[in-house]
Design goal:
CATH architecture of the largest domain: Up-down Bundle
Strand order of the largest sheet: 1-2-7-3-4-5-6
Mean pLDDT: 79
CATH class of the largest domain: Mainly Alpha
Helix content: 55-70%
Distance between the termini: 32 Å
Low-confidence stretches: 1-33
Number of domains: 3
Order of helices and strands: HHHEEEEEEEHHHHHHHH
Shape: rod-shaped
Radius of gyration: 38 Å
Length: about 350
């Protein structure tokens, strides 16, 4: 930064005021800030919840797929859905039972096992062992009972093969979700609706994304919007921040005194092709302009800063010329402010 120590210290202390000043540039009566702000906040809240719900559903779907399809192949456990209430309240209809294979010699009375019953359709049953016998060949015979049933199951099962699936934990309600997903209508919706929704979301995101050329056009249009050369409101805010109206006026006076030097520094840096020096000078002028309320000068500085960031030398030179051309008008506005203060 240049010259005046008091001005430099104030810039460091109150740099955060820079962004505040730019919020007052709308032409009075041209828009309704409160309404637009509320609408913007509401839109962001809705977008946040939509994205949150979509992300949650996607994560849950992926986790369920990994748990039900990939996990059993890698970790060796098995899953089955409880269809009846015979094991209530421990395992209820719609719960998913997770089992792991164990050696029959490691079974004990009280274990819950999942096995094929030896009668009728030999369906899979998940019940508790109430009687167990293991012979020397490692074959086990068991009697089982559902916790909610009045009596034992009317069969004795032989567990051949050396292993049987034993329950390790239960996931409530997951089976209901799985059965719902297996419904033909739901399957068709997922098969055709989910890809269609993804395509629509992708197209919407593409349409809503503005090309760089459009962004540049919008920025150029904003730059052309008429702004006052001097606005007293940022300077009043600065006085409140500094808790001294006199200190703020001294800051404005130092800004006016150093303005020609700052503009010359920018012009010199651009003419010699020193982009780093030009960037340092324009950032200093932009910040101090925002703080005193030199809004149009700040706007010119923003355009110059953008051109320097984009390494567009011709645009930077043009923006630097706009800074120089605006200097006399700003000095006149600042002089009028000083005259009114003296009066």
């Amino acid at each position: 930064m240049n010259g005046d120590p008091a001005m430099t210290a104030s810039l460091v202390r109150h740099r955060r005021v820079s962004r505040t000043a730019t919020t007052t540039t709308a032409t009075p009566g041209s828009e309704k800030p409160g309404t637009d702000k509320n609408r913007g906040i509401g839109s962001r809240v809705v977008q946040f919840f939509v994205r949150f719900i979509a992300s949650t559903v996607m994560v849950a779907a992926i986790a369920t797929f990994l748990f039900l399809a990939v996990g059993p192949r890698i970790l060796g456990y098995q899953t089955s859905t409880m269809l009846t209430g015979s094991m209530s309240p421990l395992i209820n209809p719609g719960d998913v039972v997770v089992t792991v294979p164990v050696a029959v010699k490691d079974l004990k009375v009280g274990d819950i096992i999942t096995y094929h019953i030896p009668v009728e359709d030999q369906r899979v049953e998940t019940h508790r062992i109430i009687d167990l016998a293991v012979n020397s060949q490692g074959t086990a015979t068991v009697r089982t009972k559902g916790d909610a049933n009045n009596g034992a199951d009317p069969w004795t099962a032989t567990l051949a093969g050396g292993q049987v699936d034993r329950q390790v934990f239960t996931i409530p309600y997951l089976g209901n979700a799985i059965r719902a997903l297996r419904d033909p209508i739901v399957l068709k919706v997922l098969m055709y609706g989910a890809p269609a929704a993804l395509v629509v979301m992708l197209l919407v995101s593409i349409w809503r994304k503005k090309p760089e050329a459009d962004d540049a056009a919008v920025d150029a249009g904003a730059a052309e919007r008429a702004l006052p050369a001097f606005d007293r409101r940022p300077l009043k805010r600065l006085a409140r921040e500094m808790k001294s109206k006199e200190a703020a006026e001294k800051f404005a006076a130092a800004y006016a005194r150093l303005l020609p030097q700052r503009v010359d520094k920018i012009s010199h840096a651009l003419s010699t092709g020193n982009s780093d020096l030009a960037m340092d000078a324009v950032l200093s002028l932009k910040t101090s302009s925002s703080m005193v309320g030199a809004l149009r000068m700040e706007q010119h500085c923003v355009r110059l800063e953008r051109a320097l960031v984009m390494t567009d030398h011709s645009a930077a030179v043009q923006a630097g010329e706009e800074v120089r051309q605006h200097q006399p008008q700003l000095e006149k506005a600042l002089g009028g402010h000083t005259a009114r203060r003296a009066a």
